């Protein structure tokens, strides 16, 4: 096993050298601005590109390219015709009681409905409700379920509705690459599209560095290495939990003492627990606590902010003020995206080991404390 690990270290060193030479995948304005798991933001970007009266000034060319890609990938039949007369592309379209459609592309008697899911869960009868809306209002419709990897919708959402899966990892990236060709003579739009493509490749593990990992896969798949490979793989989540429970929690204890706070976080299997996270209380606060939470299982989609200690004992006046000081909120939480390590994989584990994660926590907690000054907490 030691020989195997030595070989992997050599490959990783080689990959790091390549990564250092390639800045275009590492510098990305969409990633910097936190355009990761918010469906609304991705929907706004797609709507802007698909719209014929958009600021990109290419009229229907991007939409036509989109329809052609759908046909080429057999997501629309080759003889399907969608009229471009009186066409409108609308994000967050309200159907009233049937819900809010992420992207509606419509003309006088046809519509394309795109339900956009990055990480959020399906809602009850969501696709079925949108299909009902389409049937009641259009002679012809197509319902698409867009996810990072073309996943099927849950039965809870689909309810026997007639929909087609679409993926960012393949279909959307292919379409955007065609849009790059169309906008070749407009450097601002072209380079923006390239940045967005690179961001989607990052979200779908499709960067050049991801492809280079095939070397490691081939190495691990060799006869002499299979047993060691599975031994390591079976312990990977244990390693993550160990780093969190034995190293990070101790760091948070020290940090909380430094800031006169109390770390209420306990040791448990965060990797395999839904809504896992960390809890920190302030002895001077009666109603609120600081919390980091992973919105998806597997230490994915981390947010940090404030929530009520007891949801039956609320301080709504303060909560309304806090809503204006944080990026996101719901009826119980106010939060910002956790910086740099949105999902805790290899880099996050290294950051725990070398103390960087502790420093990030300190900055974020101090930022939260500054936002609460003068408020009854």
Please, how many domains?
Answer: 2
Largest sheet: 6 strands, antiparallel
Average pLDDT over all residues: 87
Instruction: Give me the strand/helix succession.
Output: HHHHEEEHEHEHHHHHEEEEHEEHH
What's the end-to-end separation, in Å?
Answer: 53 Å
Low-confidence stretches: 17-23
Organism: Flavobacterium ginsenosidimutans
Protein name: PD-(D/E)XK nuclease family protein
Describe this structure in words.
It contains 14 helices and eleven strands. The protein is of the alpha+beta class and 377 residues long. It has two domains: 22-208, no CATH class; 236-371. The strands form two sheets. The protein has a six-stranded antiparallel beta sheet. Strand 2 and strand 3 form a beta hairpin. The radius of gyration is 24 Å and the shape is globular.
What are its keywords?
2 domains, PD-(D/E)XK nuclease family protein, 11 strands, 377 residues, alpha+beta, globular, PDDEXK_4, single chain
What order do the helices and strands come in, and which of them pair?
Blueprint (H helix, E strand, L loop, with lengths): L1 H20 L7 H4 L6 H12 L10 H12 L15 E7 L5 E7 L3 E7 L9 H12 L2 E8 L7 H4 L5 E4 H15 L4 H17 L4 H5 L1 H7 L5 H33 L3 E2 L13 E5 L6 E9 L3 E9 L7 H8 L4 E2 L3 E5 L8 H9 L1 H16 L6
Parallel strand pairs: 3-4, 4-5
Antiparallel strand pairs: 1-2, 2-3, 6-7, 7-8, 8-9, 9-11, 10-11
Helix pairs in contact: 1-10, 4-7, 7-8, 11-14
């Amino acid at each position: 096993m030691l020989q195997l690990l030595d070989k992997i270290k050599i490959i990783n060193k080689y990959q790091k050298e390549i990564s250092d030479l390639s800045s275009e995948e590492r510098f990305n304005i969409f990633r910097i601005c936190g355009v990761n798991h918010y469906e609304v933001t991705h929907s706004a970007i797609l709507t802007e590109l698909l719209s014929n009266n958009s600021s990109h000034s290419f009229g229907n060319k991007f939409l036509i390219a989109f329809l052609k890609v759908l046909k080429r990938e057999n997501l629309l039949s080759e003889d399907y015709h969608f009229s471009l007369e009186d066409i409108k592309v609308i994000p967050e379209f309200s159907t009233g009681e049937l819900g809010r459609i992420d992207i509606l592309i419509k003309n006088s008697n046809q519509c394309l409905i795109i339900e956009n899911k990055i990480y959020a869960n399906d809602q009850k009868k969501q696709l079925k409700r949108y299909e009902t809306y389409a049937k009641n209002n259009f002679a012809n419709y197509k319902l698409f379920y867009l996810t990072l990897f073309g996943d099927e919708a849950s039965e809870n959402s689909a309810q026997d509705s007639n929909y087609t899966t679409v993926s960012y990892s393949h279909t959307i990236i292919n379409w955007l690459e065609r849009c790059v060709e169309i906008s070749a003579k407009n450097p601002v739009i072209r380079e923006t599209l390239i940045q967005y493509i690179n961001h989607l490749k990052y979200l779908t593990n499709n960067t050049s560095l991801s492809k280079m990992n095939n070397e490691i896969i081939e190495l691990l798949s060799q006869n002499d290495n299979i047993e060691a490979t599975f031994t390591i793989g079976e312990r990977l989540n244990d390693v993550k939990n160990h780093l969190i429970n034995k190293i990070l929690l101790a760091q948070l204890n020290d940090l909380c003492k430094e800031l006169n706070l109390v770390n209420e976080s306990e040791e448990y299997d965060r990797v395999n627990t839904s809504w896992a996270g960390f809890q920190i209380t302030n002895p001077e606060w009666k109603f609120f606590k600081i919390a980091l939470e992973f919105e998806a299982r597997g230490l994915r989609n981390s947010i940090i902010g404030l929530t009520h200690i007891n949801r039956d004992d609320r301080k709504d006046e303060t909560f309304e003020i806090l809503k204006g000081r944080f990026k996101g909120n719901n009826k119980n939480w106010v939060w910002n995206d956790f910086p740099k390590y949105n999902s805790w994989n290899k880099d996050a584990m290294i950051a725990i080991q070398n103390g960087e994660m502790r420093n990030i926590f300190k900055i974020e907690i101090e930022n939260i404390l500054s936002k609460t000054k003068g408020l009854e907490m």
